[in-house]
Amino acid sequence: MIVVWRVTELCNLACAFCAFDRRLDRPRRVAGREEVLAFGRVLGDYQRSTGERVMVSWIGGEPLLWPAVFEVSRQLQRDHGLSISATTNGTTLHRANVQRQILETFSELTLSVDGPAAFHDSVRGAPGNWAQLQRATRALADARDELGVKGRPLRLRANTVLMHNNLPMFAALCHTLADWGVVEITFNQLGGRDRPEFFPSHRLRPEDAAQLAALVPPLRDALAQRGVKLCGSAAYLKRIEASVHNQRIEVTDCAPGERFLFLDESGRLAPCSFSLDEWSVPMAELSSADDLMALPQRFAALRQHQSALACSDCPSTQVFPKFIA
Ligand SMILES: C[S@@+](CC[C@H](N)C(=O)[O-])C[C@H]1O[C@@H](n2cnc3c(N)ncnc32)[C@H](O)[C@@H]1O
Ligand code: SF4
What we know:
By secondary structure, this protein is of the alpha/beta class. It has one domain (about 1-315): Aldolase class I (TIM Barrel), CATH 3.20.20. It has helices at about 35-50, 70-80, 95-105, 115-125, 130-145, 170-180, 200, 205-225, 235-245, 275-280, 290-295, 295-305, and strands at about 1-5, 55-60, 85-90, 110, 155-160, 185-190, 230, 260-265, 270, 280. The protein is globular and about 50 Å long. Iron/sulfur cluster binds near residues 15, 61, 62 and 89.
């Protein structure tokens, strides 16, 4: 079970493609430490009862700005045996205590890197961020390698937002990330919901999707030779191809609540971030592993009552698997 948990809507960067860009006037809610710990206990019970591994993946906003992130991660990992991960812009990763706590507690860390230095820093409104990420990733990779089999094997990953103007840079970027010590690379196509003003001129075009489909197999082979996995299933590439042609892909039943959950900073639990408004269940209503096991039935009942708008053109990276090769 993968639990993607948005613990803060605050962010310190100004990414032109993102809904959490610090320049935007929008709500900036933050999760409560106690509430997160309470539901973490339920996830721990679920893992013990079912034997199914539960991975909690913090997201935001910038999740490493959430003040309780390391204390809560430690408790969920140590007391409940949950695996911990986060996706980060890397702005706090230069701090020795941040690196230490990640190495002690996290199983995975995903760094957002969108191109070579000039492109990345410019699209993220973050001069110097790329160099900072490079230094921190190398330091984490060195520490991971030194720990060897004795320590917690931190899986260093990177995620890139693919747009029309950075696609030509993607193959070289992947090799740079391999030099840094990253072992797994994923990509998103630029999504249009977050910043409708940025999307039309930066989105992937039909020729880009064709180029991507041709680029991935040999790049995957070349990276595999270096011990790096380039993710993105055939279904995921098909999803991108449909999007660039403005073709909708409707999904009528994605088995909501069975393998993947999304939680927001207000404690709403949904099958994915796109169905929050129609199908969320307050996490406070679930107090046991049994409650969590009954969630698919609850979502099914909600689905019968009301459809979710997003399902008529499902953008979920879990339904169209982003994380497998
Ligand atoms: C919303 S961010 C939050 C985590 C963290 N602040 C970061 O930048 O990694 C999560 C991921 O979504 C990506 N992202 C943000 N806006 C996007 C968009 N419009 N389309 C596709 N991916 C996007 C980011 O690059 C990042 O990898
Ligand atoms: S992509 Fe991440 S770093 Fe950039 S504005 Fe969004 S939440 Fe912040």
